[in-house]
Design goal:
single chain, alpha+beta
Amino acid sequence: MEKVLMINYQKCTGCRLCELVCSVMHDGVSNPARSRIKIMKWEAEGLYVPMSCHQCEDAPCMNVCPVKAISRDEDLGSVTVDYDICIGCRSCVAVCPFGAMNYNVIDKKVFKCDLCGGDPQCVRFCEVKAIEYVDADRVSVYKKRDAAQRLYAAQKEGAALQAAL
């Protein structure tokens, strides 16, 4: 069964521990610039949004690669880069609609989330559970459930305010 990262930005506190864990896991350094997951800060709204590869079914990065260095790992369902083939043209970086494909100027390599081989460390270390590793076919069910819970809570709060007036 294919699994994907499901990110709930409403739970994210912006601690950026996921970025640090990812960079240490992959490169042995505590450097958010080398992380495969990025926390985007929307200061005005007070939001932190974790962004990572969506492992697209029809992945633009895979389709644009001129040397076919990007393929799908059939066991995990993740999109992977074969560094023995990659020429570093960065076409994949330019075409990714989520900004999840990155380029490391030190190593001169593209990089993206590889789901840590099926055991994503960002999930393991996210204390608020803003990142979960779930069955791909269940994502919409989880999101619908969460939306229904938020709607119920908002309606309950509205009813309480109305009763107080």
